[in-house]
Amino acid sequence: MLHSESPAARLELLSPARTADIGIEAVNHGADAVYIGGPAFGARAGAGNPLGEIERLARHAHRFDARVFVTLNTILRDDELEEARRAAWAAYELGADALIVQDMGLLEVDLPPIQLHASTQTDIRTPEKARFLQDVGFSQIVLARELTLKQIQAVRAALDPARCAIEFFIHGALCVAYSGQCYISHAHTGRSANRGDCSQACRLPYNVLDGQGRVVAHQSHVLSMKDNDQSANLATLIDAGVRSFKIEGRYKDMGYVKNLTAHYRRLLDRLLEQRPELARASSGHSVHHFTPDPQRSYNRGATDYFVNGRQADIGAFDAPTWAGLPVGHVTCVSRDAFELEGDAALANGDGLTYFDLQRELIGFRANKVERVADGRWRVWPADGMARLKDLRAGMEISRNTDTAWDRLLAGRSAERRIDVAMHLAEHPDGLQLALTDADGYRAEAVLARAFEPARDPQRAAEALRAGLDRLGNTIFAATRIDIDLPRPWFVPAGALNALRREAVERLEAARAAAFRPLPRAQPVSPPPQYPEDGLSYLANVFNHKARDFYARHGVRVIEAAYESHEEAGEVSLMITRHCVRYSLSLCPKQTAGVIGVAGTIRAEPLVLVNGSERLTLRFDCKPCEMHVVGRIKKSVLRQAAATPLQFYRARPPVSGATTTEPGHS
Prior knowledge:
Blueprint: E1 10-17, H1 20-28, E2 33-37, H2 51-62, E3 67-72, H3 81-93, E4 98-101, E5 115-118, H4 127-135, E6 140-142, H5 149-158, E7 165-172, H6 184-189, E8 206-209, E9 215-220, E10 227-229, H7 234-240, E11 242-247, H8 254-274, E12 279-280, E13 285-288, E14 302-303, E15 325-333, E16 338-341, E17 351-355, E18 361-373, E19 376-381, E20 396-401, H9 403-410, E21 414-427, E22 430-437, E23 442-448, E24 452-453, H10 457-468, E25 476-484, E26 489-490, H11 493-514, E27 534-535, H12 544-552, E28 557-558, E29 571-576, H13 580-583, H14 588-591, E30 606-610, E31 613-620, E32 625-630, H15 634-641, E33 646-647, E34 663-664
Parallel strand pairs: 1-2, 1-11, 1-12, 2-3, 3-4, 4-5, 5-6, 6-7, 7-11, 10-14, 21-25, 27-28
Antiparallel strand pairs: 7-10, 8-9, 8-30, 13-21, 15-16, 15-20, 16-19, 17-18, 17-20, 18-19, 21-22, 22-23, 24-26, 29-32, 30-31, 31-32, 33-34
Helix pairs in contact: 1-2, 1-8, 4-5, 5-7, 10-11
């Protein structure tokens, strides 16, 4: 039967879903699990879904033993905990299989018996923290994207693989900060990344100044990372202990999710063929009606980040958006069109891009294209030539919207089926059809009626086989059809269809009856001690239940979350493993041993400037980390003061409230 293997032997492909429809297609294209936001409290403010949509997605996913994880991973105020608790119960009752959680206050309320997964926002970088989260009841933990293979292996060694699985991001956009450790958005706009409303200051252009005010880099997107792509590292990640392979993208469209899910499904299936000791975490197989290609979906360039150690070229410094794939170079420019030469086939409506002489990305749509010769195209831009700054012969043109590709993915681009063996035999009342699927589930149906001998035995046998094989509107695909009759009978097509439908319905019912919810892990007793006895604002404690949780696990000093506004001075607004000095070849370690340079470059602060915004970069070379330092704006404090809200304070506010009472902004 399905999932007789231990949890440590199962590999899960986990895909994002902005909507239930996208989630359903993720399952069809091969996802073993899907993560989706509910009505509120998911760490993507614009990607919420009504609970009825969660139920619809779960109903479809469970047919293939695929799972649905609901994100409940923002930090919560005291006055939001009850609503979050009710949302958790509603998601559970409608079929959700797990909750993805950041706020430890939720572990102090009456949650349903649903599996808990620790969000990437919990910032899991050490074996000690991973072990703690396992011991308080998390069954799956999302490691920080910045970890190396060696660090992932260390986390695996600290865990019991039968109790807790390691989840790791393998594709998609990268936050430059350690997840959960970025406060720039809140400091500058009042929009908290920890509450799902990041303003993405990391994608802005900055001037980089040294200590003497000299410009080190001009209008460069120095905090913007390329996109994560672990396609080449899946085998080593499996060996390191990863069991859930997560694609980022709850804001992404249908085509992105289809393409990336299909891509990684194929890669993982090839590895499973080579590793018989491992199995996929859900049932069935997907047939894709296109060839997936991750480069054809939105991306800022590819990096495997820190998995194989620090790399120099991890930033998307030129542009924080997708330039697309090269399609050719400009050969001549006229008043209303231009010509280019290249191998790609262009189409009306394609989105094209190029970099102007200042290395700014210019994008436009092709209103009309015309092939003028083999490999040569004339392009009429939708908004005319006047706005195409610096476009001239020799410039490379790329395409970031391929209308033919989009049309392909807009249609039915995959089918998912579960293999089934069919056996038709005589029965005392007529005919019996027995079905046995690839997971060992079995169902039978009987057609009670008398039959006449077939006038054309060969044709009758072919008709029986063809009629049984008509499974196209089901979740099954026949891999074997045995017809065990002493003589060919003539069976009317309508009667055979009815027999097949009844057997298929009973097999689906047998599968549904055997479906089991994921088990909720029980915390160990006595309560484990948190690895540290003091927590700063970086722990994101925003409600009293979270404070009580940490106190119950031995933490003595518990500061309030940055969103509680107790850190009015300069603090680290972002902590990142990305180092601007290293990327600009100014790291002291890079210059060690270089004649005439060694000893002259120190990890002194740099300054980022964007308009009136100034941020200081400080470098902690021992752990090789960078801190982006700044302070909260007075306008944000005034805005918060105008809206009384209940949240945790470590220190009494000006009004004199005690630390045991809810704070008010």
